[in-house]
Amino acid sequence: MSFDIKNKENNSKYCSQCLSKNDVEHVCSSQLLSDSVYTLSEMANEQLNQLETFSLAQVHVKCQQDLELWHSAAVNHLGQIFTQRLADLNKIYNDDLQPEFEKYKQKMIEQLKNRIIPKITKMLDDSSSSTKKAEQIQMLLNHLKSECEIINDRQWIHVLLPDIRNFSVPIRIAKMALAARLTDGEKDPLDDLSDEENKEEENLSIKKKKKLNSIDILEIFASNPDPLKTYLLETNSSTLAFSNKHILIHDNKKLILFDLNKKIYEIEWNDNDSGILVDICWMSSLSLFVILTIHSVYLYDPTKGYGSNPIKVESIKPLDRTHVLASLSPFDRDLYINYHKGVHIDHYRVTPTSEWILEKRFSKQ
Question: I need a surface site. Which of 57, 114, 153, 253 has the fewest CB within 10 A?
Fold first, then answer.
């Protein structure tokens, strides 16, 4: 192989053996380096083109599709729940509540038609009728009126629905770091290619990134959702009970009634007059709050409005005044009252005529 030495002397692409007068064939190291750099150039341009056209849109689309499928399945599932609960509601109303109501209504109508109205007619025709009998009839009519008002005011079927504003489904969206080693503040592999004058500036940039990616505890708490409502109470330990529409709280010698949005009103509670309050519960079968003191039980209707006070149940009493009542728990139309230290548990049942009957007294012994 012959070489033109004169043309090669000014060409930096040739190695020393190429420039020598030796005609021995060899592998030119300069040419190999040139080929390698050319290959690197092609790879770099290929990566550049790929990055310029690179997109995560397909990831976004896939997540959207998954979310839409979940939404469709959730709506379908809620529809099935609605259909089933609607059928349950219709069955309870048609098979239980409506027949019982008709039976009760007919009984009251018969009392009026066959007993009370004939007596009133007889009294109108008989001028010698006594005032006492008229007062008795008036008491009966007042009782019937009270019964009708109770029937009209009570919510005889309860549908306990979750609050849509608080409805929460555990859907979590997590983002993975695209460059974990950079976001974690580790050394960038490209640092070794940086010029000395740029290293100080790049180090400052890395420190800033590390600071930005650090955990801020205050920010975590600040990002949590606030409570729907906040109310300040005067005592640290308050007895309370919930219905599906109201909250009743005993706080510093008063009962406070809330609905789900605001405080409605307060009722003074005097321990000397009413007794020391120890427990409250909601009795859904009566749509009433049941309030327990150390010696008595009170009923409170939150729908009666301002000025309505708890009513004492005279027929519910402890075994004697030496015993102290401690807690209570309702079940359907039954009420269980626990004595202090568990010496007794009284089981009461309320009748359809609102009479409280002691069914059984359980003793520790």
Answer: 57
